[in-house]
Amino acid sequence: MRMVVSAVVGVARFLYRFVVGDDWTVAVAILIALSATGVLVADHVSAWWLVPFVAIFMTGVSLRRSARRHQGA
Amino acid sequence: MTGAGVVLLTTFLASSVEAIEMVIIVLGVGAARGWRSALIGAAAGFALLAVTIAVLNVALAGIPIGPLRVVVGALLLLFGLQWFRKGIARVAARGLAGVSEETVEDDDIPASGMDWVAFVLAFKGVLLEGLEIALIVVSFGLAAGQLGLSVVGAAAAVVVIGAAGFALKGFVTRIPRSLLQLIVGTLLTSFGTFWSLEGLGVNWPQSDLDIVLLLVVYGLTAATYIGMERRRIHALALETT
Description:
heterodimer, A: mainly alpha, about 80% helix, B: mainly alpha, 7 helices, elongated
């Protein structure tokens, strides 16, 4: 039983690190952007630009936040 | 050119496009995180692909490729963005740091054993692109009534592109580590964006060529952010002196 639990915890940790990484706000923003694109596409709106825009914007936000963190440290 | 020649050439070219994407991912992940885990991941992807093809055969055409693209694309995009950010920060801070940086702590690459990140990235790349090649073979081969020739064309594409990728292995390994991380991050982000949106039903105007456009856009973004980060680091250094 303990082995099963530790395997499940290990897989969950791996998935979190793989999907979310060190900045959860980027992952959440991308998932929201993908969902919004899905809704817009279903309404026949060409929304190919939304995800790249959010990816570029959130990269800047994350870099800035990381820089502030290092300055504060 | 005869009808058979057209079938062979068309499936070869169409499969080559998918095979190039497959090889780029395996090559990039292998060079950045280690060849062993990336190649085992690629082999596992091929094995599952072979089983899927053997079991489903022509019923492959019924596989819902859209949802698969969304899942694989979103995962590649989310992981690619992590490397994209780290690559920008490292190139801005240290320039084109060399191979000596291979043990940077937050890379999270295990010193021994399987690197599951490399495994999963290579596995997914091979499985998704392989399935797309299989779908090209089945749909085009059945429509043209030349399934056998279609298979030959696709197999030749995978072998030729795979061999070209293998030939480039040495060159890719020599690319400085921080730059390599940025390049692979840009590639994964571009492919992830393209596949996830394609899976959601977005129609890309230039089809697969839009991957190149995404690469250019993300590349310019990286260059801009590197410039901004460098100015910030420079200003900080002046403040402290």
